[in-house]
Amino acid sequence: MQVAKKLIRDSLSHLYCEQEIESISKLIFEKVLGFSRLQVHLNQHETISSANLTQITEIVNRLIQFEPIQYILGETEFYGLPLKVNPAVLIPRPETEELVDWIIHDCSRINPIILDIGTGSGCIPIALAKNLTGATAEGWDISADALKVAEKNAEINQVRVNFICADVLNLNYAERQQKYDIIVSNPPYITPSEQRSMLKNVVDYEPHIALFVPETDPLIFYRIIAEIAINALKPGGKLYFEINEQFGIETVDLLTLKGFKNIILKKDINGKERMIKADWDNPVI
Fold this sequence. Notes:
Blueprint: H1 2-12, H2 18-33, H3 37-42, H4 50-64, H5 69-73, E1 75-78, E2 81-84, H6 94-106, E3 113-117, H7 123-131, E4 136-141, H8 144-156, E5 161-165, E6 180-185, H9 200-203, H10 220-232, E7 233-242, H11 248-257, E8 261-267, E9 273-280
Parallel strand pairs: 3-4, 3-6, 4-5, 6-7
Antiparallel strand pairs: 1-2, 7-9, 8-9
Helix pairs in contact: 1-2, 1-4, 2-4, 6-7
C-alpha cells in the first residue's frame, strides 16, 4: 500500500494540497480495496496486488486530467447518505448540505409536502425525505439522464421521491393542482464571466446546463421559480434558495417585489451569502 500511496502523492502533489491528497487516497483505497477508513490505516503496510495497483494508476491518470474523483468512483456522500453521481449531475456541495440542514431544523410542519426544482442527483429531496418524518418529496429536472441518477439514489437510500421531467422556463403551472409546504431550489446561477475563475474539474466535466445562466439575466431561474412558488406554495409555505453570493441583495429585492415576507439572507460556514429563505403568506386569488 505504501507504493500506491507514494504513486498518488507524487502524481497529485502539483494539483492538490497534502490534506486533499490524503482524503483522495482514502477514497481510492475504499473503492479499489473495499477497505473502510480504519482498515486503510490498519493495513497501510500490506502489499496490494498488481491488478489493484494498475486500477489505482488508472484512477490517478484520470485525476491528473482534472476529472473529479466523485465521477471517477461513481459515488459520493451527501448529508451522511451515499449517492451515485456521473457527468449528468452536479457533484453535491457542502453549501447545499448547509441548506438542507437549515430546512430540516426549520421545519415545523407535520408530514410536509416538499418540491425540489432542479433536483440533479436528487440529493436535496432524498436527504429531506430521509430526515423529516412523514415528508412527501418531489423533484423536478429538465434532464432525463439526471433523473435516472436521482431515481437510483432514492432506491439506494430507501426513500420514495416522485421525480418529474420538467422545464421550469417553459412550464404552465396552472395545469397542476399540487400544493407544497416547502419549495427548495439550487438552480443554475453562474454567469459566463465567472467561468474564467472556475476550476477545470468543474468547467470541463460538470453539466453546464446545471451551472450557467445568461450574463444579461443572472436571476432568471429565481424569478421564474418565485412565480411558480406563488402559485404552488400553501399559505404559510416557505421558499428556500441556494444563491450566487454576488447577487444576494438582488435576490432578496426580487422576492420582496414578488410579495414574499420574512426574507432571510444567510451566510454559509465560509461567511458567504449563499442561502435565502422566504415565507409566502398571501393566498392565491
